[in-house]
Amino acid sequence: MTMDYISTTDLRSKTARLVDTLRKGGEVVLVHRSKVIGRIKPTDKESITFDFASFQKLAGRLKLPTLTYKQIKSRYSAYLKKKYGKNLS
Description:
This protein is α+β, with helices and mostly antiparallel strands. The chain has helices at 15-23, 52-62, 69-84; strands at 5-7, 28-32, 35-40. The chain has a domain at 5-40.
């Protein structure tokens, strides 16, 4: 089933159909208040894959401190006390 147009109010309810149409290579016209405001078409680029090794190198360059669970909990508790006051349970 192809879609020729979609209204801005239908974007929430017909998202699955929109995605299917785009995956099949179809174009969809976007209509807002009875006026055509744009055209949605599939991208030609391939998706980028996540490279964990390069992510680890980047994280290593940031030199973030390693924290234990107890340290994380105490920092978070101090943050909540500062934000909401001492009477936080």
